[in-house]
Every structure is written in C-alpha cells, then in structure tokens.
Design goal:
The chain is an alpha+beta fold. The protein folds into 2 domains: 121 residues, no CATH class; 42 residues, no CATH class. 61% of the residues lie in helices and 17% in strands. The chain is built from 5 helices and 3 strands. It has a 3-stranded antiparallel beta sheet. β2 and β3 form a beta hairpin. The radius of gyration is 30 Å and the shape is rod-shaped. The chain starts with a helix and ends with a helix.
Length: 167
C-alpha cells in the first residue's frame, strides 16, 4: 500500500488535534508552566504570569486553580487570560512536534515498503509464462523495471533473453 498525500494530511490534522487536546490541555492541566510556550502569541508586549492556588476542600481531596495573566510592561496592568486561549496557541506547536517525531518517519517507512513491494512484485511477475499475451506483458513489465531504474541494464538483457528463449 503506497501512502498518499491524503493520508499524510490526515495524520497532520490528527497531530495538531492531539497537540491541542492531549498535550496542551491535558498535560497543561497537570503542568501549567508548559503552556508558557504560547507567550509570544498571547502576551507579546508583557510578562506572562501564572497563579496557582491549591485548595483542600475536604480531607483526601486536592483541587488546583490556575489563573493566567498578561502583565503589560508599560502600565503594569494585569489582563486575565483564558487557559483555552493558551492551549489553542501552544497546542499546534506540540502538534508539529508530534507530527515530526511520529508521522514523518512512519510516512518514509511506508514509502520504502511500497517501493520494495512494487519491485519484488514486478520481479515475481517476470517468472514463468508461455503464451504470447504473457510474454508481451512480461516484456512490458521488464521494460518498466528498467525505466524505473529498479534493475540494471545487464539484468534487463539477461531476463529479456530468458523470456524470448521460453517461446
């Protein structure tokens, strides 16, 4: 199976989705400071601050409240930020990392496997036919292998002679 551009686009969209949901929102809830990567986009002219409040509403239960702010350097005014806004800006970065680490090597591996399957399938096709139609199709397959540089000129001449000798 040869991978297409459509499957690569689908994996790219999946990677961005996972970067936003799983990494930025999911892990960002556990480790809020990892979403500081969105600072240039949400707080370009100020300082990005995070205020974490840990609550113990009753024994055995711990709650955490995280508040993000953008403090303007010039005026010192703190503007509250939505955690989802940070996730929407930080998530695509993590999605691109997922895409680079997972999808690109997967796509290259699929291309290699498709090329190997095509080459071995074509070479298997060149064996053992005796009718005129089979000889013609074998010769065309042999010429295609040579044109695609999957076999050498010497291999082409040797196989061609074998096919013609079988007539």
């Amino acid at each position: 199976m040869k991978p297409g551009v459509g499957s690569l686009i689908l994996v790219f969209v999946w990677s961005i989705f996972m970067g936003v949901t799983a990494v930025s929102i999911g892990f960002g809830a556990l480790f809020p400071s990892m979403n500081r990567i969105a600072k240039p986009f949400v707080c370009a002219d100020g300082e990005l601050g995070v205020d974490e409040t840990v609550l113990h509403p009753y024994p055995g239960r711990v709650s955490k409240i995280v508040r993000w702010t953008c403090v303007d350097r010039a005026s010192g005014v703190a503007k509250p930020l939505s955690p989802f806004l940070l996730a929407l800006y930080a998530g695509p970065f993590y999605g691109l990392l997922i895409f680079a680490v997972v999808a690109v090597p997967w796509y290259r591996m699929m291309q290699r496997k498709a090329a190997q399957a095509s080459a071995s399938g074509s070479r298997t096709w060149l064996r053992g036919a005796t009718s005129a139609g089979d000889v013609e199709s074998r010769m065309k397959a042999l010429e295609k292998l040579r044109a695609d540089n999957l076999i050498t000129e010497h291999e082409y001449q040797r196989k061609r002679a074998e096919i013609l000798d079988a007539l």
